[in-house]
Amino acid sequence: MACIVPRTWHLAITLNPTYYVRGFHSSRTLFALNPVLRPTTNGSPSHEDATVEDPMFGYCSQYSTPLPNKFVRLHESSKANYPGGADKTVSALQGQLLQLLMRMTRPRRVLELGCFMGYSAMAMADGIPRGATLYTCEKDSKAARLARELFTKEGYDCSSEQSIQKAVKIELLEGDAMSSLELLAKKELQFDAVFLDADKGNYINYFNFILDNDMLAQHGYILADNVLFRGMVLQSHGDSFAPLSPPPSPQLSPKTKDARLEERKTSHQKTACHMDKFNRHVRKDPRVTVAVLPVFDGLSVIMKNEN
Ligand SMILES: C[S@@+](CC[C@H](N)C(=O)[O-])C[C@H]1O[C@@H](n2cnc3c(N)ncnc32)[C@H](O)[C@@H]1O
């Protein structure tokens, strides 16, 4: 099919990048994308706000099978432990999607970069077969400790011994994700599924490292989160970011202009540039096939091509 998006949508997308992902993004993007949403007292929209305030997202959540209550409890615990930062977790709907993808593809070995308090890890772990292993990396020692406590409490096998085939095994690698990747590569481990959700500025490095070191199994795939980053990737062009405000005065010297532009780049804009670069990089890599999906904050499904 040549075009499934109505023409008027193309116009809306061109004029207003935020429109594109509205209704599909994760809770962590709602506030940025939807001016109707207001932050809660701790500064971030809650899962509940998301479903109440955004009609399309609410509709999707309402007609998707909910995750069990332990995920609601985990989100509450994230809010208590990281006031203002609990929205780092994927949304409940995205957790459900990750779990379904695991159930559909039945990976034996999964790798996650960016565990936080374990929400997406637990969602995926509940979808993989018993005896399979999920490795997850986290550099924040408090988040890693809390995630480890949760995994043990919830009955996952967190021992360092070989899996006893009774439970899903979760191995949490605390520290920098790249060091963990190097460690796993040394052990010559290959993964059936990888979920990228750590620092956005390193997505290209993680992607390259995984492929260069043959860490993706033959039919393996990578899921990359936040690839549309609040819809802001539409404003970025590789290294630079096109601000919506008027461009700098033409009288300014290029150096001053650059300095001004640099100043204007908020950390969000920088992240959007990183994601844009990542998307371009992946698209050009002949080793993979990619679909960039406007779901949640943007999710890329990247599959390794047959040799
Ligand atoms: C968006 S959160 C992950 C959320 C998690 N996937 C979930 O849904 O619950 C990103 C996490 O990556 C971690 N992180 C960022 N840079 C990292 C790095 N270089 N190495 C390891 N972890 C990193 C952060 O500490 C943060 O907890």
TrEMBL record:
Protein name: O-methyltransferase
Species of origin: Entomortierella chlamydospora
Annotated GO biological process: methylation
Keyword Transferase set for record: yes
Keywords: Methyltransferase, S-adenosyl-L-methionine, Transferase
One Pfam match: Methyltransf_3
Family to which the UniProt record says this protein belongs: Belongs to the class I-like SAM-binding methyltransferase superfamily. Cation-dependent O-methyltransferase family.
InterPro entries membership: Cation-dep_OMT, SAM-dependent_MTases_sf, SAM_O-MeTrfase
One example GO MF annotation: S-adenosylmethionine-dependent methyltransferase activity
CDD domains to which the protein is assigned, alphabetical: AdoMet_MTases (cd02440)
Ranges annotated as biased composition (Basic and acidic residues): 255-266
Source superkingdom: Eukaryota
Gene3D superfamilies in the record: Vaccinia Virus protein VP39
Region (Disordered): 240-270
